[in-house]
Design brief:
Blueprint lengths: L1 H57 L3 H11 L5 E8 L4 E5 L22 E7 L2 E9 L8 E8 L1 H52 L16 H30 L6 H12 L4 E5 L5 E4 L6 E4 L4 H13 L2 E5 L14 E4 L6 E6 L3 H21 L9 H22 L6 E5 L6 H8 L4 E5 L7 H4 L5 H8 L4 E4 L2 H14 L3 E3 L4 E4 L2 E7 L20 H12 L5 E8 L6 H14 L7 E8 L6 H21 L7 E5 L4 H10 L2 E4 L8 H9 L6 E5 L12 E3 L4 H13 L2 H17 L2 H13 L15
Parallel strand pairs: 6-9, 6-12, 9-11, 12-13, 13-14, 14-17, 18-19, 18-21, 19-20, 21-22, 22-23
Antiparallel strand pairs: 1-2, 1-5, 3-4, 4-5, 7-8, 10-11, 15-16, 16-17
Helix pairs in contact: 1-2, 1-3, 3-4, 5-6, 5-20, 6-20, 7-8, 8-9, 13-16, 14-15, 14-18
């Protein structure tokens, strides 16, 4: 209460002071207006007497002049009228005070002139106003009209105005102060009290603390900062507890904090540069108000590498693809991120529409993508796309080299098939740099990769790196076989390395993973059970189903979505008792829609889902629900927890993190994963139901087995898979990859030779 009074008392005093000043102004203005009105009234009356008195004087009739004065002297507030001759003696008088028997007794006004003038004065206890005007309009000073008014009514009126103003001021002060008290308590002290209580709850380590409630926009910035502080506090506490628990159990689980501490020591102040086509933070203009909004693209890569970049104040070099990206960088195209707690640098590289089309849509995704995935889509290789690919790789190399200027022994981590030429470009200019590239997609066998017209140039570019990482060992084997056939180089199979012109490149498997959530929500009273979540999702989607399956994919021809739909159809034909009970929710994020093959594939997906639904649906039940839009992690997590099974039926995949995300989300240790043997994840998750996605009958049988599996078996399988994902999480992936890179000896005196022209 004292705080509220401290805030509102100055306001009350200020309001009272302003109200009093305004009251004084009102009284002053009213006095001026009343006096001006009286002056005009006296002037008008005097001029009327002047006009009539002149006719009377022409007849030299004093009685007539007296009657004129008596008749006019009935005006309101008029005290008296007198007409004096040239000697000052009265010619005609009505109501004249005895004090003014002579003109000499009347107070003087302005210097005598043909114009009239007036004056306010006091006579004893009377407040009067006199107006004097020559009787003759031609200015002769042989007679004067004097009109006297009693001005006491002005003081009475001013007293009334002052009383009204003071009452108004009092009411205004009381009302405004009361409203201020209410607003301060409602919009300031109570929110602050709630925030303080929330912080105390967090500080005390109270479990299941509710989220900070939303307040007025005036508190948005404060609440954002408080929320960040609370998150940091929770993260620090959770990290400390986890580290203590891991030390107690002698466990080897990697966390973001452990990764940060470990690599800070191993990097030894050496700067880290990450190169990726995708940026970790994107700025876009909103359609409604054209304001700039920050988007965080869904990416396990960001999850893994951001703690490292934060730890060493590194630099992320990426394509600036957001509509407002240029508006948010400095003159060097740099930006400090994350936006709420800037800890590392994002360097944006700009591409023209032609470069984007040729390098990304063309060579990368119409050429290398189908080539490496062997998904029976013919790769397209255009000479112009290859030129754009080379040009963009050079543009990124120049940007990285600019960022590395002055840095001693930098460490560079290049991401994916978009930058196969980048390692050699960097290594040629900076032989002291340690360079690694991680290839996120499969590497096909040597015969398949030989289809690419520029396979030698791509391989030579990759071998500029000190370390090349793939998801699984078979991809490493395929790469070495490809090098063996295509290039003059020494392939050292015993240590999985390639020696080309004196430079050694190591080739290793690093299975990527997800950030396993260490906190459990088993006792979270605000979290729905799987059954409640399923009911809520069915209600939102407008369907009826007691069992749900989920598929989460980009709408890409490599993901086996068409084969998945046909397996669902076959399963429902074989087991009609599951009709009107089981529904597959297929979350499909549109991808690369500017490419004809992807547009065609989306049409195929829609048509197949519609065909199956028209054939089998009944009432509000549909066998397949296709959701064509991007979903956030939080939205997808709801489907994971509500589903009885998750289908990952990729025709070919480097890893496929959906399988691991589903496992990480199932803290109830229920649900079944159906997983393609052609996905890299199948090498780690042997407790999933492994299937050949091309075998519709086998997949249908696995769906039936998953739905019939009892809870103990589900729990046993899920427990083992969760332990695997937890121990081999994304932080371990980053730690293994970067640790191996930092241990490579680099002799800065040896320059990497360019390939012969």
């Amino acid at each position: 209460m004292r705080t509220t009074l401290k805030l509102t008392l100055p306001l009350a005093l200020s309001v009272a002071a302003v109200a009093l000043l305004f009251a004084g102004y009102q009284v002053r203005t009213e006095r001026l207006n009343l006096r001006n009105d009286l002056s005009r009234q006296a002037e008008t009356l005097a001029e009327s007497i002047q006009e009539n008195a002149q006719h009377v004087r022409e007849r030299s009739s004093l009685p007539a002049l007296k009657r004129l004065v008596d008749r006019i002297g009935q005006h309101e507030h008029l005290k008296g009228i007198a007409i004096y001759d040239a000697t000052g003696s009265p010619l005609a008088v009505t109501g004249l005070p005895s004090e003014f028997a002579s003109l000499q007794e009347v107070p003087a006004t302005v210097p005598e002139s043909t114009a009239g003038s007036g004056k306010f004065f006091t006579l004893g206890k009377m407040d009067l106003y006199v107006y004097r005007l020559p009787l003759d309009a031609d200015g002769k000073q042989d007679a004067t009209i004097a009109i006297f008014y009693d001005t006491g009514y002005i003081d009475a009126r001013l007293s009334q105005v002052l009383r009204d103003a003071l009452v108004t001021a009092l009411l205004q002060t009381v009302l405004i102060t009361g409203l201020a008290l209410l607003l301060v308590r409602t919009m300031l002290t109570k929110p602050i009290a709630r925030t303080a209580k929330w912080l105390r709850s967090l500080r005390s380590g109270a479990p299941h603390t509710q989220p900070l409630p939303a307040e007025d926009e005036a508190f948005d910035q404060l609440h954002r900062e408080v929320a960040h502080l609370a998150n940091d506090l929770n993260a620090a506490r959770a990290s400390a507890e986890e580290e203590a628990r891991l030390r107690e159990s002698a466990s080897s689980i990697w966390t973001a904090e452990r990764l940060r501490v470990s690599l800070r020591k191993k990097l030894d102040e050496k700067p880290l540069f990450v190169v990726a086509n995708r940026e970790p933070y994107m700025h876009v203009f909103q359609e409604k108000d054209h304001a700039i909004r920050v988007l965080v693209p869904a990416s396990g890569l960001v999850t893994a590498l951001e703690p490292v970049l934060v730890a060493c104040d590194g630099t992320w070099v990426a394509h600036g693809s957001g509509s407002a990206d240029r508006e948010t960088v400095d003159a060097q195209d740099r930006l400090r991120v994350p936006p709420d707690r800037p800890n590392y640098t994002l360097r944006r590289v700009w591409l023209t529409a032609g470069e984007q089309k040729g390098y990304y849509e063309g060579f990368s995704n119409e050429g290398l993508w189908p080539l490496c995935h062997i998904a029976h889509t013919r790769p397209i290789f255009r000479p112009q796309d290859w030129l754009d690919y080379q040009r963009v790789n050079r543009k990124f190399a120049d940007a990285v080299l600019t960022e590395m200027e002055g840095a001693e022994s930098p460490i560079v981590l290049v991401q994916d098939y978009h930058f196969a030429l980048l390692p050699r470009m960097i290594k040629e200019a900076r032989p002291d740099a340690r360079v690694a590239i991680f290839w996120h997609i499969p590497w096909p066998n040597a015969e398949v990769f030989g289809i690419c017209p520029w396979q030698a140039e791509l391989l030579d570019g990759l071998l500029g790196a000190d370390l090349i990482g793939f998801h699984v060992q078979s991809h490493c084997n395929n790469f070495l076989e490809t090098v063996d056939r295509a290039l003059e180089a020494l392939t050292e199979w015993d240590r999985f390395a390639v020696n080309r012109r004196g430079h050694v490149t190591r080739v290793r498997p690093y299975p990527i993973s997800v950030a396993f959530p260490e906190t459990t929500h088993e006792h979270d009273e605000w979290r729905r059970s799987p059954g409640q979540e399923r009911a809520a999702l069915c209600s939102e989607l407008g369907i009826e189903a007691s069992l749900l399956g989920v598929g989460v994919d980009r709408l890409d021809y490599t993901k086996g979505i068409l084969e998945r739909f046909r397996s669902i159809e076959h399963f429902l034909e074989l087991h009609p008792t599951y009709q009107r009970r089981f529904t597959l929710i297929q979350i499909g994020a549109p991808s690369r829609t500017a490419i004809d093959r992807y547009q065609q594939f989306i049409q195929e997906i829609r048509a197949e889902a519609e065909r199956i639904n028209l054939r089998l649906q009944s009432g509000r039940w549909r066998p397949i629900v296709l959701l064509e839009r991007h979903h956030s992690h939080e939205e997808i997590d709801r489907y994971y927890r509500a589903a009885s099974l998750c289908m990952v039926t990729s025709l070919h995949d480097g890893m496929n993190l959906v399988a691991k995300e589903f496992i990480a989300a199932r803290d109830d240790e229920q649900g079944v994963l159906i997983l393609s043997t052609f996905a890299g994840a199948s090498h780690e998750l042997s407790d999933a139901l492994l299937v050949n996605p091309y075998d519709v009958q086998q997949v249908a049988g696995s769906i039936h087995r998953a739905l019939e599996m009892n809870e103990p078996e589900q729990a046993e399988r899920m427990h083992r898979m969760r332990r695997n994902v937890r121990e081999h999480n994304v932080y371990r992936w980053a730690a293994d990859l970067l640790s191996d890179l930092t241990e490579i000896r680099v002799d800065s005196s040896d320059r990497v030779e360019a390939p012969p022209a």
